[in-house]
Q: What sequence folds into this?
């Protein structure tokens, strides 16, 4: 049906609803279903169908301002079906269910893209159709089901046959809303599952609750009692300013909370998030000076980087304090981790948050992702947006990423805030925590460090609506049942809907945690479920340390581990913040939709998740070099070392363990008898430590394995650092230019490769073959050697792979149409996989090579020309 775009609709024949997509599957039960309905043919003869469920209801209090200006540029996401969505749900179940043969055998980002991302034909079909109608269509990131689309409001309105109206939300925020269900050509009805970004009737809200000062005692709750009596614990220690702020306001330092909940016991084992990356979701900016002050106070040095999605957030450069709090809590609870802050504007468009989550999943850099932002599930979140979001979270789960979300600070009435209408007191929960593939975390009230005496956080329990709820320092933990998502199979029986939260921790601002935010005067005590999400995220990064398999979708494992040793049950209090829901929901013995499984006993829960004291990991060596024989003892530091059974110096063989503690090993290196650069790894009953830049050891060098060489197109060699000259082709007449090189394991030799695949060997590099006498479809552009130096791979510009010696073929892009040519390759440390890189920075992974990010979706000033493994 074609609509009159002044806002009215022409008469239409009766519609018969046809369900053509059911993306959000959970345990075999449908979540939000996007439906298409038949319609009369458009004037151009193309039959169109409406995407049902994508017509928002404009609530009272929203001013309607007329049509969106036709020249205004809009940015949308067209959601695609992808390959085998039901198979994805089944795979996530298998990957996350303890006892399953597939348990924790996650997919790489490349494997996900190949198996479940949209096919090339699917993307091309939709792109061609939308371009033909006048829209600008971008390229989805690898594996993403979101097709970026832009155009003027006039064109968008015409293409999707829906009027667009400007509105003003409470708080004088201007947005827009579609006033009819968007339509797509019937030929695309089985491919397009939604159009995200047409409507925006709510914004992301943070779960930050500021401490109520003693002079502002409002409501029945005693705001401040006495200073915490928690012990100091082990791990990062606070400076005097942080300790004083916590004591003065009846709160805690992060060190005290670590002691209360058992995290300090993990720190004592050296489990501090070594080698782990935490992604933090933000819709505001933050001051790096605030974070630096906090880190200095606690003796931390976590690197913090920022990835901006859809533009820089507006507002104050230092933000509201939410971003600073999230980063600070993540760093102090995983003191050896790296932090990536993914930030986006807090727009009313329903597509901005989706774009941010999609970027995190596509990057697959952070295996723990935490957000303290959300929306009330009933705040007009379109079905297509909820379903598209679910696909992104399923992808995270399939890749072994854990997504955590705060459950909210408005109790069982998540839509309620201090300026809400009375109708906002209905029972509701918070998105994204209500999503089945997200770990929802709530809050408790803990006085004087008494874990056993915790109750549900609710500053207004028993109070009728009034001053108590109106005061911004008060709140209550979010919790209840989803109105969108069914109960996952791993949650307890008793209700048909997804219940939240899954677990809880101290969040009462009356007994908050010290953080630093200069705009609030520096050190102060803060609360809200905002502090819980990054705290528990930090714990999961500690647990992930040193393990090949991360926690991933951790819900099924947590519920399987539910016992008194792993959790402290919370049995008193309710989260009926407004007092209008008969005390719903109340804490009970066992699981309840207000405190979840209870609060974690981190040391015991860490054992339940990963076993004993975890997989080993190395943070550093006391010496990074030594003689080729007769080396003296060196000390290795890290975690999970108390039960280390073997220490291996790469191809040099096993070292001798002299002594061990939880966090260190004294080891005598082996004697290989010749110069060699190796990775040092430790094995215990849970596994073997992963190789990193911190565990390299150089035999026969007074320096380290840190040096490099340049090679020119004529084969001229330039050495730097510990690299030594072994020869060159600079004085030879070459048939084809040199295009790459690879170094032998001991650093005392190298190969050069020409564009025709001719190989030149120097030092101890051996010749294993070449393509110099073969007619190539495309020129050779790079090479990589095997870890033992007994073979190598060559790669052509079309991604064709040639193997020699003991190099094994794991796949190629030779049969794939590439947007840009391949320009380089690198092998994984164990030699059982490799990466290829294209000139646009697109990455292709084979064998055990994981996808760690790319510049495929970035506008580059100049093309990528090479790559190397870190």
A:
């Amino acid at each position: 049906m074609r609509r009159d775009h002044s806002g009215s609709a022409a008469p239409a024949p009766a519609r018969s609803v046809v369900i053509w997509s059911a993306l959000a599957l959970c345990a075999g039960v449908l979540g939000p279903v996007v439906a298409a309905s038949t319609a009369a043919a458009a004037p151009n003869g193309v039959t169109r169908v409406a995407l049902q469920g994508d017509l928002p209801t404009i609530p009272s209090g929203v001013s309607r301002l007329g049509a969106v200006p036709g020249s205004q540029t809009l940015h949308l996401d067209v959601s695609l079906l992808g390959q085998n969505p039901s198979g994805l749900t089944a795979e996530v179940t298998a990957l996350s269910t303890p006892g399953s043969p597939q348990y924790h055998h996650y997919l790489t980002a490349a494997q996900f893209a190949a198996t479940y991302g949209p096919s090339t034909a699917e993307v091309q079909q939709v792109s061609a159709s939308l371009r033909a109608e006048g829209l600008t269509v971008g390229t989805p990131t690898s594996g993403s089901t979101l097709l970026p689309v832009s155009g003027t409001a006039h064109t968008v309105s015409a293409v999707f046959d829906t009027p667009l109206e400007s509105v003003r939300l409470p708080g004088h925020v201007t947005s827009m809303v579609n006033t009819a269900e968007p339509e797509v050509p019937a030929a695309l009805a089985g491919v397009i599952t939604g159009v995200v970004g047409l409507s925006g009737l709510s914004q992301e809200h943070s779960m930050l609750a500021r401490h109520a000062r003693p002079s502002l005692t409002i409501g029945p709750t005693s705001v401040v009692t006495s200073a915490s009596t928690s012990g100091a614990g082990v791990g990062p220690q606070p400076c005097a300013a942080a300790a004083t702020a916590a004591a003065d306001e009846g709160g805690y330092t992060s060190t005290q909370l670590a002691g209360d909940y058992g995290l300090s016991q993990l720190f004592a084992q050296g489990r501090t998030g070594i080698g782990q990356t935490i992604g933090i979701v933000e819709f505001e900016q933050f001051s790096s000076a605030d974070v630096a002050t906090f880190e200095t106070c606690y003796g931390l040095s976590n690197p913090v980087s920022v990835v901006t999605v859809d533009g820089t957030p507006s507002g104050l450069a230092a933000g509201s304090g939410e971003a600073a709090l999230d980063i600070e809590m993540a760093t102090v609870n995983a003191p050896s981790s790296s932090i990536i802050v993914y930030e986006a504007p807090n727009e009313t468009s329903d597509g901005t948050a989706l774009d941010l989550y999609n970027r995190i999943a596509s990057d697959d850099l952070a295996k723990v992702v935490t957000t303290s932002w959300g929306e009330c599930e009933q705040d007009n979140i379109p079905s297509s947006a909820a379903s598209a979001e679910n696909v992104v979270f399923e992808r995270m789960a399939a890749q072994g990423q854990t997504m955590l979300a705060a459950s909210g600070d408005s109790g069982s009435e998540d839509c309620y805030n201090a300026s809400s209408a009375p109708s906002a007191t209905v029972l509701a929960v918070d998105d994204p925590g209500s999503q089945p593939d997200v770990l929802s975390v709530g809050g408790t009230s803990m006085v004087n460090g008494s874990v056993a005496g915790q109750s549900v956080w609710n500053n207004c329990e028993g109070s009728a609506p009034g001053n108590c709820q109106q005061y911004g320092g008060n709140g209550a933990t979010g919790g209840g049942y989803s109105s969108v998502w069914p109960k996952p199979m791993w949650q307890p029986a008793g209700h048909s809907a997804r219940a939240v939260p899954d677990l809880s921790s101290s969040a009462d601002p009356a007994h908050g945690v010290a953080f630093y935010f200069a705009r609030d005067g520096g050190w102060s005590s803060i609360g809200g479920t905002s502090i819980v999400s990054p705290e528990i995220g930090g714990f999961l990064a500690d647990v992930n340390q040193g393990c090949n398999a991360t926690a991933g979708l951790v819900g099924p494992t947590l519920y399987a581990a539910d016992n008194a040793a792993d959790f402290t049950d919370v049995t008193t209090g309710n989260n009926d913040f407004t007092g209008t829901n008969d005390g719903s929901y109340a804490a009970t013995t066992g699981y309840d939709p207000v405190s979840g499984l209870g609060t974690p006993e981190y040391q015991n829960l860490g054992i339940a998740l990963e076993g004993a004291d975890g997989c080993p990991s190395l943070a550093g060596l006391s010496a990074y070099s030594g003689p080729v024989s007769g080396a003296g003892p060196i000390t290795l530091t890290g975690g999970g070392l108390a039960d280390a059974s073997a220490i291996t110096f790469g191809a040099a063989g096993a070292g001798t363990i002299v002594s061990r503690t939880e966090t260190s090993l004294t080891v005598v290196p082996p004697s290989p008898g010749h110069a060699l650069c190796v990775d040092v790894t430790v094995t215990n009953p849970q596994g073997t430590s992963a190789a990193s830049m911190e565990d390299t050891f150089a035999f026969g060098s007074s320096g380290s394995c840190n040096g490099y060489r340049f090679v020119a197109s004529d084969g001229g060699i330039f050495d730097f650092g510990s690299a030594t000259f072994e020869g060159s082709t600079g004085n030879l007449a070459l048939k084809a230019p040199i295009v790459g090189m690879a170094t032998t394991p001991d650093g005392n030799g190298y190969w050069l490769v020409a564009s025709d695949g001719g190989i030149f060997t120097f030092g101890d590099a051996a010749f294993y073959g070449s393509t110099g006498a073969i007619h190539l479809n495309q020129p050779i552009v790079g090479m990589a050697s095997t870890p033992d130096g007994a073979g190598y791979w060559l790669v052509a510009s079309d991604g064709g792979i040639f193997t020699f010696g003991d190099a094994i073929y794991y796949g190629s892009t030779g049969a794939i149409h590439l947007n840009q040519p391949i320009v380089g390759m690198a092998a994984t440390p164990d030699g059982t996989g490799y990466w290829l890189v294209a000139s646009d920075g697109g990455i292709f992974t084979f064998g055990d090579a994981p996808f760690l990010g790319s510049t495929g979706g970035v506008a580059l000033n100049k093309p990528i020309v090479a790559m190397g493994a870190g």
In short: The first helix runs from residue 85 to 96. The longest strand covers residues 676-684. The radius of gyration is 29 Å. The chain has 15 helices and 51 strands.
